[in-house]
Amino acid sequence: MATSFNNDPSQVLSNVLNAMEQVVLEVVDEDTGTVRLIEGENQWVRELFPHSKDNSVFRIDESTPFLQDFLIDGRLIWRGNKNARIRSGFWTEVVSKDKALHLEAIAIRHASYNLLIISNQAEEFTFRQNTLQSARELLQHNDRLVEQNEYLHERLLAILKKPTKQNNILTALTKAIENAGFAVLITDSDLVTIIANTAALKLFEQDSIQDNLSGEDINKKQSKPMNVILHLLENQLPEYERIISTKSCWDGELCWMSPPSTLKWLKVALYPVVDEFNQVKNWIVFANDISNLKYLVQRNEQLALQDMLTELPNRIAFWQTLEKQIATNTPFYLLYVDINEFRRHNEFYGHDEGDKLLVELSGRIKRTIKESDFIARVGGDEFAIILTQIDNQQWCEDIVKRIIDCTKKSFETRKSGSFNITISIGAANFPRDAQSVEELMKFVDLSAYNGKKVKANSLQFYSQSLKDASHKLIEIENDLREAINNDEFELFLQPIIDLERNQIVKAEALIRPESSRKRYYLP
User: Fold this and answer.
1) Is 183 exposed, middle or buried (CB count within 10 Å of its CB: 0-12, 13-18, 19+)?
2) What is the SS3 assignment for 107?
3) Residue 250 and residue 229: Cα distance in Å, rounded?
4) Distance between CA atoms of 349 and 119, rounded to whole angstroms?
5) What is the pLDDT of residues 348-358, one digit of tens each?
6) Which residue has the higher pLDDT, 495 or 98?
7) Model pTM?
8) Which has the closest alpha carbon to 462: 439, 443, 480?
9) CATH class of 13-120
10) What pLDDT digit, counting tens, does each position of 216-239 carry?
């Protein structure tokens, strides 16, 4: 019988949070990252926050660097006047030499309360690790199958080319293929099956409820392996006729879909057996069910390379694609798209509407560019686009104009309101402006940032003058920091006088370099 906590709701909440491996912190001061533990208590909490005992306040500091960085995003939520939330995503904190915590944080503002919820995601992390391990094991299994395919292929060729009686050949083939862990079929020159092993018959069985089916219907469900393979080849392989006519080997993946319940990914290989006159005597066909491998690979690619919100490729996928594009040594333009004043939009409409904007904008841009171009979400409100096969600035400007035009149509909110946005776009050319991923990304980011100053739709191409101006500004900032550290400034109060009353009414504070020191001139 379960324990009842009807008389103590706080105990219920505490037990639920502990069971869910969560802790709730009240944000006392969002500027300094000062918090107080209000609900939830686990051993991992004490390890992560050793100063969280007895309901006392403590600061989130550099001992938890990822969480400290997340507070910057959290402040946008906590300083707002509307209910909102934002997630950190998963991260890992090393709390001791032999222990690491896998965590996720949520910053929440609700009914004037500022909260920070931290979850221990050990189970989710383990699940993902197990998924990756399963994928690795399946890949190793696939490698072993490839080796078995090659071995069996050579053995079957030796049998089929050996001059002997037909009955002896069939007996030898049957023994060779029956214990194979995958489907093996031997056909004649017209691709009519001569012999198939048990694995082939089992692989091409279709899952179905056979109750109330006639004998003819049941036979239809028991598909002939070679008929299915030929049908898939004819429909999914444009070069099928060329392969058969030229007596070529082929291997690849085919998708077998047969409603209502059959969906399998097959790894299929075809090998011709020719006589001394180069005429096809037989075909050897191998087929493996790789559905699990396909699912796990796609699943892990999605986790690692896809942005979950927009379903676009993420920054990692973009980086890999950009490196591959550079390796081709083909000219292209790289665009960096930044939404102007996106944080103010989030503060005004809420983060749910901000997410909705990102999804809709990404869809509009994707429909505007060519299918061969590549778009990814590389930051909170930032997208990167590779315009392939373009080495003409005017063509690039035309595409950017279409991208800007697609954003001019109003965006609708869930509450039937509407709003408009502007974007800033930086552009750089490979190989003229840069020859590496790092430089290209740096230059387009600089260009987009420079365009944001006008707070309107803008396109800024990278140029040497832009780079020089940026370097000059950095030098001035460094000089100013050095001057402050060396106490090289003097404070002056310049009086402001009311001439009618002949009185000093206020003063203007001026900070100037000491006369004997270096002078600083801002541009």
Assistant:
1) buried
2) strand
3) 13
4) 27
5) 888 888 889 99
6) 495
7) 0.43
8) 443
9) alpha beta
10) 443 444 468 999 999 998 888 877
